[in-house]
Write a structure and sequence with these properties.
This protein has about 230 residues and is an all-alpha fold. The protein is about 65% helix and about 0% strand. The chain folds into 2 domains: about 140 residues, Rna Polymerase Sigma Factor, Chain: A, CATH 1.10.1740.10; about 80 residues, Arc Repressor Mutant, subunit A (Orthogonal Bundle), CATH 1.10.10.
Length: about 230
C-alpha cells in the first residue's frame, strides 16, 4: 500500500544519533552492483526489521537505520549529486519512515517503500529551493540561474568511465535518471520501480531505456575519442 508522505513529521533527533554513521563513500558504479543473491538476502532481512518496527517495536529503529540508510543515501546521492544534501535528505527520509510506519503493509517490500519516501523528500527539497530562488529574485530584481535540468549539455572534461556515467546521469531528465538509478543501480524490478515512481511499468521501461541509450552513446563517444 503506497501512501503520500506529508511535510510534517515527528522529531526523532534523539533517536537518529543512536544509529551508526552512514558510510560517506559514494556507491560504486555499474561494476560494483552487488550479486542478486546477496541483495535478495539483505532485502529480506530489511523487510523483517521493518515489519517489527511497523508493529511498534521501537528498539528496531537503530537496526533499520543501519541496514537501510546506506541504500537510501546512495539512491539520493545519485539523484542530487551532493553528498551533504544526500545526508540531510536521508535523515529527512527516515524521520518520514518513522511517521508513516503505521501505514506500512505487513509483508511488503521495505526498500521500494523507503525509496518512494526518499524521492518525495528530494522532490519537496527541490520545490522549496525553487520557491526560495524565486523569492530571492523578486527581492533583487535580477534573473535567476536556470535549473540544472534546463541547461545545455556540459562538455565532458574527463575520459574516465565513471566521470562519463556521472556526467550523463546529470544530463538526463529527472524522470529518466530516477528510473535508471532504481533499476540499474538499486536492483529494483520494473514493477517495484513503477511503484516508487507512481508510474506505469511501460512508462518506467521507456524512461530507463532512454537513459540507457544516452549512457551507451556517451561511452561510445568516449571510446572513439580515446583511440
Amino acid at each position: 500500500m503506497w501512501v503520500p508522505i506529508g511535510e510534517s513529521f515527528t522529531d526523532l533527533t534523539a533517536i537518529l544519533p543512536m544509529a551508526e554513521p552512514i558510510q560517506k563513500a559514494p556507491p560504486r558504479a555499474a561494476a560494483g552492483v552487488a550479486a542478486p543473491g546477496a541483495v535478495d538476502g539483505a532485502s529480506r532481512a530489511l523487510d523483517a526489521v521493518m515489519d517489527r518496527y511497523a508493529r511498534g517495536e521501537d528498539g528496531a529503529f537503530g537496526e533499520l537505520y543501519r541496514a537501510g540508510a546506506p541504500r537510501v543515501r546512495g539512491f539520493l546521492l545519485r539523484l542530487c549529486g551532493d553528498a551533504a544534501l544526500a545526508d540531510d535528505l536521508t535523515q529527512d527520509a527516515f524521520l518520514r519512515v518513522h511517521r508513516a510506519r503505521g501505514s506500512f503493509e505487513r509483508g511488503a517490500a521495505a526498500l521500494p517503500w523507503f525509496f518512494a519516501i526518499a524521492r518525495n523528500a528530494f522532490l519537496d527539497h527541490k520545490r522549496r529551493e525553487a520557491t526560495r530562488r524565486a523569492l530571492a529574485v523578486e527581492d533583487r530584481g535580477v534573473p535567476s540561474e536556470a535549473p540544472a535540468d534546463t541547461r545545455g549539455d556540459e562538455v565532458l572534461a574527463a575520459s574516465e568511465t565513471l566521470d562519463v556515467v556521472r556526467a550523463t546521469l546529470e544530463r538526463l531528465t529527472a524522470l529518466q535518471r530516477e528510473a535508471f538509478v532504481l533499476i540499474r543501480f538499486e536492483g529494483l524490478s520494473v514493477s517495484e520501480a513503477a511503484q516508487v515512481l507512481g508510474a506505469t511499468e511501460a512508462a518506467v521501461k521507456i524512461r530507463a531505456f532512454r537513459a540507457y541509450e544516452a549512457l551507451r552513446a556517451a561511452l561510445e563517444r568516449q571510446s572513439k575519442g580515446a583511440r
